Amino acid sequence: MRAGIFGGSRHSFRAGFLGTGVVKVASVALGAGSGVLLARILGAQGYGVYAYAMALVTLLAVPAQLGFPSLLIRNIAAYEVRGQWALMRGLLIRSNQVSLAFSLLLYGALSGGYWLLRGADDSESMSTILWGGMLLPLLTLGAMRGAALRGLRHVALGPFPEMVLKPALFILLLFVVPVFRPGLTLSPAVVMSTHVIAAAVTFGVGAFLLVRRLPAEMKEVRPKFDTRIWFASAIPLLAISALEIINAQIGVLFLGILAVPEDVGVYRATNAAADLVGFAYLAVGMAVAPSISRLFSQRNLSGIQHLMTKSARVSLCFALPVAALFIGFGGSVVGVVFGEEFRRGGVALGILSVGQIVNCATGAVVPLLNMTGFEKDTLKGFGLAITCNLLLDLFLIPIWNVEGAAFASATSLIVWNVFLVWLVYRRLGIDATALGIWKFQRQS
After folding, report:
1. CA–CA separation, 411 and 178 (whole Å)
2. What's the pTM?
3. pLDDT tens digits along 75-125
4. Exposed (0-12), middle (13-18) or buried (19+): which is 25, by Cβ within 10 Å?
5. For residue 7, what is the DSSP state?
C-alpha cells in the first residue's frame, strides 16, 4: 500500500519537495539578502517607501490575475490525467489573455492617479509607485507561467524564475548600476526601476521554459474554451488570492497610514526574517498542490491523508529550531542582519514566529481545499482571518506600533488555520495537521 500513498509516485513527492525546498531556501536567502542590502542602501525611511510601494503593487497584481494561477494548477493537472489537451490549451490561452488585459488596465489607472497627484509633496513616493506599476503585467504573466509549469508537474521549475532568478538578478543589478552610473543615487524610485528590469528579463526566461515543456499532444490540437466555467471557478479563487495578499500586506499598509515610514521598514524587515520559519511550509504547498489534484481525481483519499501528514511534519521540523532562535534572540538577529536601527523589531519577530509555527503544524490546508473544489471554504477562512487582522490592526497599531501589527498578523494566521483544519475534516474526513497520521492508522 505504501507505493500508492502518493498516487503511485511516492518518490515524486520527495523529489518535488526537495526541488521546491531548494528553490525556497534560495528564495529566502536571496530575499533576506536583498532586504538587508536595501535596508542598508535606503535606510529605514527609504526602505519603508519602497516596501509600501511593493505592497501596493502586490495587492494590485491579485485582481489582475483573476484567480487563474490556482485554477491553472488544478485544471491542468486534471486535464493531463484525463488527456483533455484541447481544454488545456484553451485554458492557457484564455488565462493569459484576460490577465494581461486586466493588468494593463490597472497600470493605466495607476498612471492616471500619478498624473493627477504629481504635484503632491512626496514626489519620491509617487515616482516609486509609478515604477512599481510597470511590474503588474510582468508579475501577472509570470504567475500564469509558473502555475502552468506546476500543473504539469514541474513543481520546482515553475517558481524558479520568480523566486530565484529575479531576486538574484535584482541584487546583481543593485551592484552593477552604480558602476555604470557613478553619480546615480539609489533612491527608492531608482531601486524600483531596477526591479522592473530584473522582472522583464525573468519573464523572458520563464516564457522560454514553459514553451519547451508544453506537452506535444497539446500543441497538436485546436484549443477548446470553457470560459464561462473557468470564470465561475476562478472568481472564488480570485477572492481567496486577494484576501491572502491583503491579510499578508495589511500590517504594512496600516503602519504606513497610522505610523511612520521607519515603522514600515522595521516591520517589513521582521516579516522577511519570519519567512525563514515558514519556508518549508511554502515549499510543501508548492509541491503537494498538483499531487492533491491528481489524487483527488482518482478518489485516493488515503493517499491525500498520508501526503498531508508527512508534509505537515516536514514543515514543522524545519520551523521549530528557526522559530526558537528568533523567539529567544530576535532583537540580536535583526540588529546584526539589518542594522542597529532595526533591532527594535525583535519582539515583533518573536510574535510572528509563533504564528508561523502554528501555520506549519496545521498543514497545507489551503492547497488541499482549493485543489479538491472546496475553494469557497477557503474563502470563508480568509474572510475570518482578514476581519480579525483588520480589527486588531486598527486597535493595536496606534498603541504598540510594530508589535501591534505583528500580533494582529500572527493571531489572524492562527485563527485562519485552525478554522480551515476543521473545515477540511468536515468536508473530506482528513486531518491535515502533523498528528493526522494517527487518525489514519487507527482507521486502517
Report:
1. 42
2. 0.68
3. 998 888 888 999 999 999 999 999 899 999 988 887 777 677 655 555 777
4. middle
5. S
